[in-house]
Prior knowledge:
By secondary structure, the chain is of the alpha+beta class. The protein has helices at residues 2-23, 49-62, 64-68, 86-108, 135-138, 142-197, 214-218, and strands spanning 26-34, 74-79, 115-120, 126-134, 208-213, 223-231, 234-247, 252-267, 273-287, 292-309, 314-335, 338-362. Helix content is 35%, strand content 43%.
Amino acid sequence: MSRxxxxxxxxxxxxxxxxxxxxxxxxxxxxxxxxxxxxxMFYVPWNGNDTELARLLECIENNKAIIxxxxxxxxxxxxxxxxxxxxxxxxxxxxxxxxVKSELxxxxxxxxxxxxxxxxxxxxxxxxxxLTVPVKETAVTDADAEARRKAEAERLAAEKRAEQERxxxxxxxxxxxRFAAEKAKAEKAAHQNKLTDMPxxxxxxxxxxxxxxxLRWATLTPDLGVEWRICPSWGxxxxxxxxxxxxxxxxxxxxxxxxxxxxxxxxGEKKAWHLGAMFKAGQFNYKLxxxxxxxxxxxxxxTAGYQLRLNKALDxxxxxxxxxxxxxxxxxxxxxxxxxxCGNETKNWCGPINAxxxxxxxxx
Length: 364
């Protein structure tokens, strides 16, 4: 019995000596590569990735033979939790892991089968690569481990500060955009108010115009005139008409000329309505039947009308004149081509003395 106890004690003592050695034969070494939030590009010089990559390549080079033999696979874990759904996070994590593997395959000349890959929709925006290598290859002192932990903590703090600065910059830009939009809106409202406060555009943005009475032209009587706008409320217009027609071997005749000066007063907000005083003088020669009439006319009256603006250069003036006309004329007949006088006559007329639908062309 004592021999068994002695043997068991000796066996336990040997196990306590050899177990730590066995336990320390291999250890996991992890390399972390950081990624920009919501991005899948692998930026080697960014956030310490170049340092981690150099360390990992050195470790792969020292253990390349057993890696290529498949005895020490590289465990690649891709992480992402910044996308809007789990599927998008897993897809982004997969792309990130593949980009890190591509970098290692290109630089370390290893193969796809030397990797074991897993993807996760949790934790953060990084990719880890782990190798289980002999302790003698990766043994570090407590001081080195503490330095590693301190460096990792500083890197995480720097990343956190960078993220906070990015968010602050985005917030600042959003505030600037909001202020700019509010300023533009206020300027637009002020401009609209200014336009509202401005007086409505009137047809008085000219001083001199040409006029043509379209009703006269419709009766084959050419009619032209001018108007001078002294000011927005007052204008002086002069229209003149002339025509001379004969037919049936001059047995029938229609001829006249007229001059009609007019003073106008424009009213209303747009200065479109007008009242005026007209004087008319002229001569006529009508023979539309057996007896012809040839003589003078003179008169005047008041006028009223409205100017309709067509565009910047053209207006349409609707006008009507009421007043008195005196016509002093001779009557005649044509006998064998000779005019034979057959009396005089004078007529007075009270009522419409002028009507027009006049096209106004504003020159300046």
